[in-house]
Amino acid sequence: MSEARARLLNAATELFYAEGLHAVGVDRVIAHAQVTRATLYRHFPSKDDLLVAYLTQADEAFRARTDEARAAERTSADAVRTLGRTITGDIQNPGFRGCAFLNAAAEYPDPSHPVHLAVLAHRQWFLETMTELFSGIGKIDPEPAARHFVMLRDGAMTAGCLSDPQPICETFLRGVEGLLIFRSGEKSGT
Questions:
Q1: How far apart are CA 160 and CA 184, in angstroms?
Q2: Which end of the chain, N or C, is surrounded by fewer C-beta atoms within 10 Å?
């Protein structure tokens, strides 16, 4: 990646995440990155291309952190726990503004728009990854557990930027533990 492309992508990431995809125009990204308009359009022919690159970079970063969690742990259950703690760490970071993908989906609801398609691709990968992790645990129905984990994460990411993140994170981690002990075929007490 060229230095100019990296500066553009870093500027876009900072601005888009903090202020929103529609709220930030390319002129702001150009000024923040300290490049020319021609440089922006040489690397990103349209704002949509820049938005997709921003989401692709976020996707790649989360995939790398997920791979690290999987490599660091001996069991799938421990990897799920580590990934849960990674998510709560994100929620407690200064400047946390929710999930970049959920935010993007809210701003680009058209299911055929490239931004929305990038969001869906990330979410499909995440669901498949969580299904694979829950499959490695045994005695847990992996598909519903993975869907539940993703839903818990979505809720925690949303609530974590609206109020005190500490109880949100504690609740999310309790939910993850509940998923890890819930056995296939058992009925919940609710």
A1: 30
A2: C
> What is the rounded CA–CA span in Å between residue 186 and residue 109?
37
- Long-range contacts of residues 116-120, Cβ cutoff 8 Å, at least 24 apart: 118/51, 118/52, 118/55, 118/56, 118/59, 119/55
pLDDT tens digit sequence for 129-159: 999 999 999 878 999 999 999 999 999 999 9
- Return all residues near 137 (Cβ < 8 A) that are at least 6 apart: 75, 76, 77, 80, 180
C-beta separation of 50 from 26 below 8 A: yes
pLDDT tens figures, 69-84: 999 999 999 999 999 9
Two tokens, residue 83: 């990934």
Two tokens at 66? Answer: 């997920």
Q: How confident is the model at residue 183 (pLDDT cuts 50, 70, 90)?
A: low
d(CA 14, CA 19): 8
Alpha carbons 141 and 150: distance in angstroms, whole number: 15
CA distance linking residue 43 with residue 100, whole number of Å? 22
Distance CA(64)–CA(13), nearest Å, equals 17
Q: Are 26 and 54 in contact (CB under 8 A)?
A: no
∠ CA 6-7-12, rounded to 5°: 100
CB 123 within 8 A of CB 63: no
